[in-house]
Amino acid sequence: QAIDSKNIAKFIDDTMKRMEDSIEKDTDEWKKLIPGKNILNIFSSKAGMQVGMLKRAYLAEAMKSDPNPFNEIIQIFERFNNK
């Protein structure tokens, strides 16, 4: 099968549908579609940083963001502390 814009668009649409379905149905299939560890390892290698250092740098920058991307998680742990 030749690679053309129609095939690429169909692949993207199909993949997005599978990812949305996985998230909606609370399954783990999205983890197979987004290989986070592999992406992180490749990025850290290209950046010349150890993975742990890259993670800490990301977390430090993310905590400065407005809105904080971790607000939902922070709120969950705050509820645990208040019980």
What does this structure look like?
The chain has one domain. The N and C termini lie far apart (58 Å). It has 83 residues and is an all-alpha fold.
List keywords for this structure.
single chain; 83 residues; mainly alpha; 5 helices; 75% helix; extended
Query: Main beta sheet: strand number and arrangement?
Result: none
Q: What would the average pLDDT be, to the nearest integer?
A: 90
As a percent range, the share of helical residues equals: over 70%
**What structural category arises from helix and sheet content?**
mainly alpha
The shape is: extended
Instruction: Please indicate the count of domains.
Output: 1
Q: Ranges with pLDDT <50 over ≥5 residues?
A: none
How many helices in DSSP terms?
5
Report the portion of residues in β strands: under 5%
Summarize the structure.
The protein has 83 residues and is an all-alpha fold.
Q: How is the secondary structure organized here?
A:
Layout: H1 5-24, H2 29-33, H3 36-47, H4 51-64, H5 71-81
